[in-house]
Write a structure and sequence with these properties.
It is found in: Membrane. One of its GO terms (cellular component) is plasma membrane. It is a multi-pass membrane protein. This is Transmembrane channel-like protein. InterPro entries: TMC, TMC_dom. The chain contains 29 helices and no strands. By secondary structure, the protein is mostly helical. It starts with a helix and ends with a helix.
């Protein structure tokens, strides 16, 4: 009872009396009243918090007086954690990290002031007082110092915010509504209330044509925006991976998803490579066709061999002319329609292929560095379990199938994170380590022996094909060498997979990396033998013929046969393997990531090797990837299961891009550079038929510019000192390597800084725990001293009485609150000393 009386006596009420002059004087504008409102709002909050703390301390003292044996008020923790007092808990509840999102009125006040400033900036004057009603203007008379916030204050802020939003332009109003930290329902209410009524709009339309023009402009902008959204939606719907990637990631995890993401990346690289080739080579030569050759009849076998009626088309190198297309020439060199465009086809062929490769190189290096930074800069998975649990759900999802898909995706991510967290290597004895090392050495020796046997078989069979050439009427014999190599590429990975069962790696990531390494050695050995076969042996045996067309057709046959074997393996091989696994192992097999990824890298390497000899080979690769995406997805859903041991593929994309860059692209670039600088072109076909090397096309063009006049001397100087001089090539290579090295060092430094910041955050958390414990101990000592002083200064509090506790302790409490703080402390010390002396 007495606590309520004391709380009422301590409540402070701010009452400003009305004076007659207030009614006659002019009221302040909403902008000026808002400043006063904010300042007094802070004062009100401080006073209310002080009153609340005083009331809380009185309740604690009353509890101590009523139950002296209980000590101070405590909270029991079920898990045996630290127990804090009520005062400590009140301070903890007032921390900024625990009060976020509570004060909606503060948010409304903040954005109200912001809209006032924007409106004054937009209009150049003060807001009009007419639309603002008197009840919507804040006044100090309405504020009482209460412990709970008043609803009237929030309503006033809400109405002020609505009035100010109505004065802003529509685009600025929508932008501000999006940024407000309010719920969607509250944003919808604000948007509905801030819309200008139609009657007012018509009234404004009658005042002039400015509003009509602004409305027309706004309507046109909305129409164009809606049209753009519709076109963007249609473009997203045309992508084959629009829904499939989410489904694969949710059902099979990030490890299998990395394969399809890599396939999508290869598709983008081929599109980027195809665009300049089609724009500057294929389209121009198709517009200015050379003299037609007698084309053989198409039998349908050309789709597999690439020869026949495909030979004398823009598909291959030999079709392109060797003249400037605007210069009159004889009938043996170019067609009669040439002469309308100053375009040198040899120069365009060389520079277009070089520029396409340079653009691909820059894009590939940038993608690799970006992926490296994303995966290795923040590669640690510590601390993201809570983020995955509480922050992964997308609340914009409204459909049932999308919510189920997102739920499966989050569950799979949690499984991968927990599997990586629980993965730990057990300690092994010395004998166990020696046994493991012996098994690894034996498996690697067998794998390298298999790779060596495959390379020797390819070399032997290619030599046999050179000694027994294929007759022109038997084009099916050209498919024998691609068939043999595809069989080796298909059988060797299964052998590696069987040998990997002997190793029994603890980490599934290490198992995938080892399989990728073995398959990479196999593909590299086979492609190295094939490059030697094409440029070292075939060029010498095809003298007098167009050896560039033969190499282009050979690469086309390899791509087609590899695609056919990939389809057969997906449709039938994985189906048979699934049936065997379900009967023997009681489960579906897992998706072989290493073999499938290396097949993609192998096909892309064939594409880069054949760009110089077949400019339309990237188009074949694009069609191949699109079909392969759908087939692999269907086979994955029907014949495979999720990995039995989930693992997080955080660095797989970076590893795939690295393998695509250095062994694949670098090897193809070396192959093409050797063909351009060292190998003599054919004398019967192609744009370089009269030159010793393809590189001489640039030298001939520079000499022609020198003969024309002195205006082109600077081009000859650039060609002589920047292109022909090897110093510039070595300098450019050194700069590229330096940039790569600096990028790696920057990423390492960022990782180190991130680790230090994480450690600092962890230390700050420990500092907070330490400060909270110290604060708790200080309050315990303070409450213990207050309780002792009350007991020894008021003997009636410790003597049992027939009256109520409040009535018996009221004189003591009055005596407790009467003196000042120093007197209380001095009195407490004297009482304690006297008690100690009596003891």
């Amino acid at each position: 009872m007495w606590t309520a009386v004391m709380a009422q006596q301590l409540a402070l009420v701010l009452d400003v009396p009305e004076t007659p002059g207030d009614q006659d004087s002019l009221e302040l504008s909403p902008y000026e009243e808002s400043e006063v409102h904010d300042s007094f709002h802070q004062l009100i909050q401080e006073q209310s918090r002080w009153v609340a703390e005083e009331g809380l301390e009185l309740q604690q003292v009353a509890g101590d007086l009523g139950a002296p044996a209980s000590g101070h008020q405590t909270l029991l923790e079920p898990e045996g954690g630290p127990v804090y007092s009520t005062a400590t808990l009140s301070i903890l509840a007032s921390m900024p990290s625990r009060t976020i999102g509570r004060s909606r009125g503060a948010i409304i006040s903040k954005y109200y002031n912001h809209t006032v400033r924007l409106r004054r900036r937009h209009s150049g004057s003060r807001p009009i007082l007419g639309p603002v009603v008197c009840s919507a203007r804040p006044s100090l008379r309405l504020y009482d110092l209460e412990l709970d916030p008043a609803d009237l204050e929030e309503e006033e802020k809400w109405s002020l915010l609505v009035k100010e939003l109505q004065g802003l332009p529509v685009a600025q109003r929508d932008h501000m509504l999006r940024g407000m930290p309010l719920s969607l329902q509250e944003k919808r209410v604000l948007r509905e209330k801030s819309r200008t009524p139609r009657g007012k709009q018509r009234g404004r339309q009658g005042h002039g044509g400015v509003f009509c023009c602004s409305q027309l402009r706004y309507t046109c902008v909305l129409a164009l925006h809606s049209l753009g959204l519709v076109l963007l939606t249609c473009l997203h719907a045309l992508r084959p991976w629009r829904y499939a990637l989410k489904q694969i990631g949710g059902q099979f995890g990030s490890s299998v998803l990395s394969y399809f993401l890599f396939l999508k990346t290869l598709l983008a690289f081929n599109m980027l490579l195809l665009l300049p080739l089609v724009a500057f080579l294929v389209a121009v030569q198709a517009a200015f066709t050379p003299e037609a050759h007698p084309a053989p009849t198409c039998t349908g076998l050309e789709l597999l061999t690439g020869g026949g009626c495909f030979t004398h088309t823009v598909m291959y190198y030999g079709y392109y002319s060797n003249t400037t297309l605007n210069t009159p020439c004889g009938p043996l060199q170019c067609g009669p329609r040439a002469g309308s465009l100053p375009y040198s086809m040899p120069l365009a062929y060389l520079f277009t292929v070089g520029a396409a490769f340079f653009i691909t190189c820059i894009t590939l290096v940038y993608s690799m560095s970006h992926s490296f930074g994303e995966s290795y800069r923040v590669g640690s998975t510590k601390g993201i379990h809570a983020i995955t649990v509480f922050c992964s759900w997308d609340y914009k999802v409204t459909q049932n199938w999308a919510s189920r898909l997102q739920r499966d995706n989050i569950c799979t991510q949690l499984k991968e994170l927990l599997a990586e967290w629980r993965l730990c290597k057990g300690s092994q004895s010395t004998c166990g380590r020696l046994r493991r090392a012996a098994v690894l050495a034996l498996v690697w020796l067998l794998s390298l022996a298999a790779v060596l046997g495959c390379a020797v078989a390819v070399l032997t069979f290619s030599e046999l094909r050179i000694q027994s050439p294929v007759v022109a009427d038997q084009e099916a014999g050209l498919l024998v060498l691609p068939l043999v190599i595809c069989l080796l590429n298909l059988g060797a990975p299964y052998l590696f997979r069987g040998l990997a069962t002997l190793e029994r790696h603890d980490s599934p990531v290490l198992e995938v990396y080892v399989a990728i390494g073995r398959n990479l050695v196999l593909k590299t050995a086979i492609l190295g033998v094939l490059c030697y076969h094409w440029l070292g042996r075939r060029v010498a045996t095809l003298q007098g013929r167009c050896w560039e067309d033969f190499v282009g057709q050979e690469l086309y046959r390899f791509m087609v046969m590899d695609f056919i074997f990939a389809l057969l393996d997906s449709l039938f091989g994985e189906l048979v393997w699934r049936l065997i696994s379900e009967r023997r192992l009681r489960g579906k097999p897992e998706f072989d990531i290493a073999r499938n990824v290396l097949d993609l890298i192998y096909g892309q390497t064939l594409t880069w090797l054949g760009v110089l000899f077949s400019p339309l080979l990237p188009a074949v690769q694009i069609l191949r990837l699109l079909i392969l995406f759908q087939v692999k997805k269907a086979s994955l859903m029907a014949n495979c299961q999720a990995p039995r041991r989930p693992w997080l593929a955080s660095h797989m994309s970076t590893v795939f891009l690295t393998l695509l860059c250095f062994p694949s692209f670098l090897g193809a670039a070396v192959f093409l550079c050797y063909a351009v600088w060292q190998v003599k072109p054919s004398d019967t076909c192609g744009p370089f038929r009269s030159l010793d090397t393809m590189y001489e096309a640039g030298t001939v063009w520079v000499r022609h510019l020198e003969q024309v006049g002195p205006g082109g001397s600077w081009l000859s100087w650039l060609h002589r000192y920047l292109v022909e001089n090897t110093f510039f090539l070595f300098l450019a290579s050194a700069l590229l390597l330096a940039v790569i090295y600096l990028n790696i060092q920057v990423v390492k430094g960022q990782r180190k800084v991130i680790c230090l910041l994480k450690e600092q955050i962890r230390n700050e958390g420990e500092d907070k725990i330490f400060l909270i414990n110290r604060l708790h101990s200080v309050y315990e000592r303070k409450e213990r001293r207050s309780l002792q002083w009350v007991r020894y200064s008021c003997p009636a509090a410790s003597v049992p009485s027939q009256q109520s506790p409040a009535a018996s302790s009221w004189p003591c409490l009055s005596a407790f609150m009467a003196p000042s703080l120093p007197e209380v402390k001095a009195g407490g010390r004297r009482q304690l000393n006297s008690v100690r002396g009596l003891a």
